[in-house]
Amino acid sequence: QVQLQESGPGLVKPSQTLSLTCTVSGASITTNFHYWSWFRQPQGKLLEWVGAISYIGSTFYSPSLNSRTSISRDTSKNQFTLHLSSVTPEDTAMYYCVRGYSAWGQGTQVTVSS
To answer: Beta strands of the chain (E only): which ranges?
Structure first.
């Protein structure tokens, strides 16, 4: 059974780059046809797709965040990482890593504040 675990700083200062890593167990991130995504949900707001990386390393980003987002992977560690630059308090949210739409990590809270 696949399991995903987010890790990263819980507090980031405005204008800095947020980096969150998802460690996957029970499945390989290079397994054919799987896509590995990041979602986020600010408190009291709707869930938002941030971006994804495919099993061959292709990346896809939300148009609203495209200029600030990158997703990379380390296949030797079976991890993928979200980088979100120039963060503002509006980036404060619970961040989730996901395989497809059915396997979710528990989420990690990120707060952007000075």
So the answer is: 3-7, 11-12, 18-25, 35-41, 48-54, 59-61, 69-74, 79-84, 93-99, 103-104, 108-112
Give the C-alpha separation, 26 to 49, whole Å: 24
The CA angle 36-55-98, to the nearest 5 degrees, is 10
- Classify residue 100 by its DSSP letter: T
Ramachandran area for residue 107 (φ above 0: left; ψ -120 to 50: alpha; else beta): left
Whole-number Å distance between alpha carbons of 47 and 98: 13
Joined together, the tokens standing for residue 33 give: 């046809």
Residue 51 forms beta bridges with which residues?
A: 38, 61
Residue whose entry in the numeric block shows the structure tokens 């399991």: 3
Q: Which burial class, exposed, middle or buried, applies to 55 when counting CB atoms under 10 A from its CB (0-12, 13-18, 19+)?
A: middle
Residues 27-79 have pLDDT tens digits of 999 988 999 999 999 999 999 999 999 999 999 999 999 899 999 999 999 99
